[in-house]
Write a structure and sequence with these properties.
2 copies of one chain form a homodimer.
Chain A (H helix, E strand, L loop, with lengths): L24 H4 L6 H10 L1 E6 L4 E3 L7 E7 L2 E6 L5 E7 L4 E2 L12 E4 L3 E7 H10 L1 H27 L2 H18 L6 E3 L4 H8 L3 H13 L3 E4 L2 E4 L2 H9 L1 H4 L8
Antiparallel strand pairs in A: 1-8, 2-7, 3-6, 3-8, 4-5, 4-7, 9-11, 10-11
Helix pairs in contact in A: 3-4, 5-8, 6-7
Chain A binds a DNA duplex through helix 7.
DNA sequence: CGAATTGTTGAGCACCTTCAAGCTAAGTGG
DNA sequence: CCACTTAGCTTGAAGGTGCTCAACAATTCG
């Protein structure tokens, strides 16, 4: 795990970049791991697994080995219900992790599928466990990532439990926008990798409702919508709406 | 479990029972921690914090120090929205843990309040971190508990995203029943510590709807309902309903 | 280019919410 | 101990939000 032959530079073809060379470097395991420690971590990570649109990363029921970090592209997590329909439980954008919900069990409780061509880092959980035994910061980071996931799910609970359809879509867009921004991408313009169906499932709405909302948001000059390409026009109002759809309308929300 | 100094018996007043003496012993940190290790864990746990009905364990925004395990009684977790109304995010029964969602932040993202007289063990997170650095099994267990929480939240997402009111209440009752059973209590008869309002919030429904459902379930001989005291009469049908309300009705669901 | 999948739009209706009133239970003070 | 107050629960009636069904448009893909 320590001694490294100079295999860092790979001839060509497969873009096998080490974490240090990866744009997502500070993002996957955010901070505080010093360089020596980091090399150990780098050593266990299996880099650049690539999936094409529609391919599965794992399926519900498969045995759990690794957690994953998204490099470029996007992934959806979902559970399939008895009657065949899916409930989308999360979208994973560049720099985000997935697979954490499986740690408790021997097998994955949900499936993960690429929404577009996506590359990921695979982190064998067994070895990550050993490693974080030795590297306190790593343990803390791991717990934080999991805690963050819990937090995210709970904010989703509020969304599904209390919010109207308007508020849900607004909150969804704000969330995506914020996450892109954190990763250094544009917060105003982005492409939604997922289908309207996926969005509807995630937000607990019918597809038709989501579709109607997009056109209405467009008419109200909140957004520019061209299929999957979204541009946020009135960020302030969208934020206000994400919290409370009734108060926003008409008069501008007070400008922060 | 073998050599014990006679410090087990405490003079009197404050019922300061060690974990070994606690009925929830194997439940909080389920398994596999050997005795020596366990004593270390036992050493950092602050036992028997007691709350009366309505008292807060912590409030949203307070700084995070500890996670908690419920001994007897029950706790609700909830976030308060801008407009004052609450979204209940979880109920915590004997043997279950709470506070995990705060690990990522310095402060608690939600509040926790006792639904009845409740005693808890407080586990300072800082020291638990150090300890699990030394005791691999403990680290694994901690991750598992968190992963389980994620899993639970995700099953709730499905509930709120896809299920009808009938299915939601049925699933809720099945969940409570199952959890009591796991802890060695009756799976058929139990008292719901929370108000109808709390249940409604948790399930994303109006209070009136929940109330109506209880009376309907009673009329259909699924349950006996006397205020907060519930007895499950037709467990099979309730289970079937929790998954798919339409298929269940009339004809018996196939018996497992 | 044609087939298939995905997205949009419209109309009607169902489920659940909202509003409103009465009821029960619990806690308080005289 | 009872009257009073208050909060919580139940029940009814009306209305709206979002769903279902259905047809059509647009996009993707072989």
């Amino acid at each position: 795990m320590d001694e490294k032959k100079p295999d860092k530079v790979i001839p060509f073809s497969q873009p096998k970049v080490s974490c240090e060379g990866c744009g997502m470097f500070q993002l996957c395991l955010p901070i505080g791991v010093d360089l020596e420690e980091f090399k150990e971590l780098d050593g266990i990570i299996q880099r650049h697994r690539i999936l094409r649109r529609g391919e599965y990363l794992y399926r519900a029921g498969e045995t759990f080995h690794s957690i994953y970090a998204v490099g470029a592209g996007s992934i959806k997590s979902f559970t399939s219900l008895e009657d065949g329909c899916e409930q989308v439980t999360g979208f994973h954008l560049p720099g985000e992790m997935l697979g954490l919900e499986a740690i408790n069990e021997a097998h994955h409780p949900c499936s993960a599928k690429a929404l577009e061509t996506t590359n990921l880092c695979e982190i064998p959980f067994e070895r990550l466990g050993e490693l974080s035994q030795r590297i306190p910061v790593l343990q803390t980071e791991l717990l934080k990532v999991m805690s963050k996931e819990i937090l995210h799910d709970q904010s989703l609970l509020v969304l599904l439990g209390k919010k109207s359809a308007d508020e849900r879509l607004a909150a969804f867009l704000v969330s995506i926008s914020t996450r892109y921004k954190q990763r250094g991408f544009s917060a105003e313009s982005f492409r939604l990798g997922m289908s309207r169906n996926d969005i509807a499932s995630y937000l607990g709405l019918a597809v038709e409702t989501v579709s109607r909302l997009f056109t209405r948001f467009h008419e109200e000059n909140l957004l520019q919508v061209h299929g999957k390409d979204i541009t946020i026009c009135d960020e302030v109002r969208l934020h206000a709406m994400a919290q409370n759809a009734k108060e926003y309308s008409g008069h501008n929300a007070r400008v922060q």
